[in-house]
Amino acid sequence: MLDAHILQAKGFTQVEIAEMLGVSDRTVRNYLKQLPAPRKRPVRSSCLDPFKQILHEQLEKNPWYNGELLYERIVRIGYQGKKTIMKAYVAGLRKKLAIQAVQRFETEPGLQAQVDWKEFGLQVVDGELKKLYAFVMVLGYSRYPFVYFTTNMRQSTLLACHTLAFAHFGGVPKEILYDNMRSAFVPDEEGVWRPTRRLLACAVHYGFTPLRCRIRRPETKGKVERTIGYLSHNFWPRVEGTAQSLADLNSAARSWIASISTKPLDDLGETRAQRFAFEQPYLSVPVKGDFDVRDPVPLVVNRESFIRHETNRYSVSPDYIGQTVLLLCHPLDRQVDLLAEGKLVRSFTLAPPGGRERIVFPGDRAKLTVRLDEDRARVDRWRRPSKKRTVTGLEVEIRHPAVYESLVADTCEAAL
């Protein structure tokens, strides 16, 4: 009956086709309504079949697991096929898993937050031209955001922003999804990207799981991407071009978040505030307090009993001359703690960097004066004129070392 389609294409009517094929009009009409079915190809077995379950299980755990390592793994357990066969199957499997991930990405309350940075380039901040960045964390269910402006994207700054975000939300989500930032994830010896030690310590402290977004898959972190776009086009034009401090920017960001949270979301029909009120009880409450995000800076106390940091000098007790002390610096302010021998010496505010200031603390001034007097007395004893003493019946002359240096110089000149 395949000829009926050919005859119809040539312009014959159904009656003429029925007469030519010797069948009824109804038979021809019913047949022509059906499209020609493609020929089914026989399903052939593949040498990769016994290993597909292993590949599937590994990619379920880590969709971006290195292909070379996967190939080496199945070769060790008996795979004898070509690498291209495995790579083609893995590529299709990764695509399938990515589609499934996007389909189930509408998260339940309290499950996930997404994190990313927004760069604003060089801006006048606190009276100086600096690079400006915005840390953004968004709760997946409610789309309720947290925004904090900084002048760097260091790891300690990233973690400090986490502590502020958790305080802002009043709790911690079960997992946090990160963009491909080196301050959060680094590759190990096998090429697998893993959380940095400090991020992992922070995650253990607060009880969340850090996850890494797949490269070139922006849809997996679409909530934070849309929030960053909204921040760029709705918030930033309101403050752009005005000379502000970081404190002013962050205050304005808090007000902006409060204002947008009362507006209904187009695709959900509820406001961020309404959804956050439902989500907030699902966030876990930290029980260990804030994570210590301070950077430890080792410094040596010089002979004058000072440490040097950012071109400024700060006095330390003379008891620590020659020792290494730790300066614990918070990344978001100028408050520091000074530790010596594991004990807190003092807390103070750092002077502006580059100021070349010399700061002497009152508690050290008296000790420095005593130490200086002792050192001067010691030098004076060295410089006193030589005198003779009698030791066990012998007359001994005590001389300053400079006398011997002079004798050596005279001897060298005589030799020449």
Overall shape: it is elongated
List the total number of helices.
13
Strand content: 15-25%
Average pLDDT works out at: 84
Q: SSE order in H/E notation?
A: HHHHHHEEEHEEEHEHHHEEEEEEEHEEH
Instruction: Count all strands and give the number.
Output: 16
- Amino- and carboxy-terminal Cα gap: 123 Å
SS-based class: alpha+beta
Give the C-alpha Rg.
38 Å
The residue ranges in which pLDDT falls below 50 over 5 or more consecutive positions are none
Strand order within the widest sheet? 3-2-1-4-7
Largest sheet: 5 strands, mixed
Helix percent band: 40-55%
Description of the structure:
By secondary structure, the chain is an alpha+beta fold. The chain has 13 helices and 16 strands. A five-stranded mixed β-sheet has the order 3-2-1-4-7, with helices on both faces. Strands 8-11-12-13 form a four-stranded antiparallel β-sheet, with no helix packed on it. The chain has a three-stranded mixed β-sheet with strand order 9-10-14, with no helix packed on it. A hairpin with a 2-residue loop joins strand 1 and strand 2. Helix 2 packs across helix 3 and helix 4 crosses helix 6. The protein is elongated.
State the main characteristics.
alpha+beta
List the helices and strands and how they pair.
Blueprint: H1 2-9, H2 14-21, H3 25-33, H4 52-61, H5 67-76, H6 83-103, E1 112-125, E2 128-139, E3 145-150, H7 155-169, E4 175-178, E5 185-187, E6 193-195, H8 197-206, E7 209-212, H9 222-239, H10 246-260, H11 272-279, E8 295-300, E9 306-309, E10 312-315, E11 324-329, E12 335-340, E13 343-349, E14 358-359, H12 362-383, E15 387-391, E16 394-398, H13 401-415
Parallel strand pairs: 1-4, 4-7, 10-14
Antiparallel strand pairs: 1-2, 2-3, 5-6, 8-11, 9-10, 11-12, 12-13, 15-16
Helix pairs in contact: 2-3, 4-6
